């Protein structure tokens, strides 16, 4: 009976040691794979996620500003057209004597 317990104790120690070795091997393989991925990604010139998010936010803000400026430009163009229309209506009411100020033309020498 004593030999059986001793056998199982030894077997338990061997299994525990093997498990510890496998855990260490697993950690080493993970570290090597991580290093390879980092090397490949650095060679591919991939951007970090934080930098990508920052640039995406900047682009969204620029797009919003561009849309606001487009609306402002359309409003200013409409206002300009209205002012030009009012100016033409005012000019047609003035007498057409060939002068820009509506007054008399200076004598030609």
Give the distance, in angstroms, between the N- and C-terminal Cα atoms. Answer: 142 Å
Task: Domain count, please report it.
Answer: 2
Number of strands: 0
Relative helix content: over 70%
Helix- and strand-based class? mainly alpha
The oligomeric state is: single chain
Describe how the helices and strands are arranged.
Elements: H1 2-44, H2 49-93
How would you characterize the overall build of this protein?
This protein is an all-alpha fold. The protein has 2 domains: 11-46; 47-87. Helices cover 81% and strands 0% of the residues. The chain has helices at residues 2-44, 49-93. The longest helix has 45 residues, at 49-93. The protein is rod-shaped, with a radius of gyration of 43 Å.
Characteristic key phrases:
single chain, 109 residues, mainly alpha, 2 helices, rod-shaped
Provide a short characterization of the protein structure:
This protein has 109 residues and is an all-alpha fold.
